[in-house]
Amino acid sequence: MNCSRKGDGINTTSEKLRLAIRPTWPILCVGLFLLALVVQNSDAVDRFFVESYIHAPPKLQGPSTQSQALRLQASEEIVKTLPTETFLSEEEQQKKSSPEKDDEVDDNLTFVPSAGVQKLVESLREATVKASGGEPVEFSEAERQAWEAEHPCRSRAEIRDLYAERKHMKDVPINKQWNLVYSEYEKLHRTCMKRVGDLQQYFTSKNTSVACSFLIAEPHFGLGNKLFHTSSVFLYAILTQRVILIPESTSIPAVMCEPFAGSSWVISDEFHNLIKEGRDTSETFWKAVDGDKLVVRQAKGTLGNSVYSSSMNDEWVGPEPRFWCNTEQTYMNSVTWLSMSGCTLFAHKLFAIGMFRDILEDLFPNKLVLTHLLRSLLLPGDSAWERILHVNEVYLSEAQKQVGIQVRFFQEDEEYKLKNDRINNRITKCVWENKILPEVCPASPKDKAWNDPKFAQCKTKMSAEDHENPQVIKVLVGSLFLGLHDHLNDIYLRHEMTTTKEVVGIIQLTHELIQGSGAEVDTQALVEVISLSMSDVVLITPMSTFGGVIQGYGGVIPWYIEFGPEEDPPVVCQKGKAIEPCYMGASQYYQCPYDDVGEKKVSDVVPYLQDCLAIDVGYGYKLNMIPQGYGMQMTPDNIKDQDFYI
């Protein structure tokens, strides 16, 4: 069908020109009006374009699932009813009022949270309003500045810049959805702590007058274990709008910054002991849930105040099997005080809980969880941060490439003496075969390997210019023993040059021989964790939580060293399939007597919660440290979503 209008009686040039110009005048008038509007009220115009174009729902590419359509519809409905500024964090709202921050404000105005995140934000805000009792807890800019002066935390402002200095890796992208949720949770934490006042008296009197619930993190063992458990408890606290607290004796408060402006998460050991004495066991909680008849359970989902305080687990592997069920989670909402002990990373399995899954998937779309948890909640205090900066300035900052290698012998000196040479050789083979470090040149032309093509560059000696502008690779070793340091140092110092003419230097900060405990031990451990996490490439020991937090802080996919007993294994190392570490000891099956999932395998319901790599947990099977068939890892839909190599 042709819709053009030829032969309509307009024949002369002057007539055509007159008709062409005539509509211009009203358009020009409208244009002048809009220009005046822009000058007088640019914010209104900005909002018009944001709401009309940037907030417009995206076109779905290809067929969409019903859940995607429902989420998109929910997102549209919420955006219709809430202004853009609703989703700015407290910090971003302050920036918005500063003229010099115009670029950042414009960027924030384009940010619309996904439906699941909007739902979580609204839940946090509702909890804060209830906690306030109708009297909002104010926190002025002057109060914030005073609080920050009393609780300084340089790493909060500086850590991202340090990661950005890596030569071969981009840093993990900022997650605005997570930052928004964190900001809203901070308000809830501050409101509850100020409204309750004396926490100990509130607990001992079984008070519920303030609409707040609490969650005590009880991490134990080494620093890696503590960071794994605490970050996992924190994510659960956000999902359930609970105030997270941590005992002083864990050493976390002594090593890390206070994470929530205007309030503290630290409780005394005396108070913690009272909590342990006054709480019910998890078995009591399960029995209380079982006591309700099915009809009542479906309709009610609350225990009233019959269970005021309860422990949710008693084992190192984390929450017990029934914790992962919707029905039990509904009942937990009525328990004012929960406490959770452990030493593993169970944050990923929270995605297995049906009522949380959509929210978590929207909050972490690239399945990158631990990095954001660690870098917001568990930031080095100023004492540790100063040491980290010192290590970087003195040893690492001038390197063109940094490689971190973490070696952990779980049975300490006995295992070290038995396996040191074997592990050293595997590491050397791994870094050479995978081009992580350059090989050294043969000692002389008489060497049989001299004519191997890979040593072709060795025939040209290093020039004066090479020495004036050396290409330096720094290898930072983290270990209780000096075995690997001495092994690599001997290789690179006793050979004239490498195949790439790069210079390799080996650094090790400590060699304590045994794993200690206490605030100073954890502080130095954190210095090494962060310093190692600044590497472009990391090699870590399987099953090591110390290695796991290195990859978490750094946002880097690690190489696992083969620690099995074989003399000559077919694979000496293997690159991981995700940044997220393994949840060791995780049960792979639901045990939910009142839910539809029943006893299904978790991965059948949540496909991205997969088995951990055999090279990672197989060592534990052989040592009988964890049962065969256990272990769970969060994997991205596409590995490129977590691969930040340049």
TrEMBL record:
InterPro entries: XG_FTase. Residues 88-107 are annotated as: Disordered. It is an enzyme of class 2 (transferase). It comes from the Eukaryota. Its main location: Golgi. It is a single-pass type II membrane protein. Its EC number is 2.4.1.-. It is found in: Golgi apparatus, Golgi stack membrane. GO terms for biological process: cell wall organization. The chain crosses the membrane at residues 20-39. One of its GO terms (cellular component) is Golgi cisterna membrane. Keywords: Cell wall biogenesis/degradation, Glycoprotein, Glycosyltransferase, Golgi apparatus, Membrane, Transferase, Transmembrane, Transmembrane helix. GO terms for molecular function: glycosyltransferase activity. May be involved in cell wall biosynthesis. Belongs to the glycosyltransferase 37 family. This is Fucosyltransferase. It comes from Riccia sorocarpa.
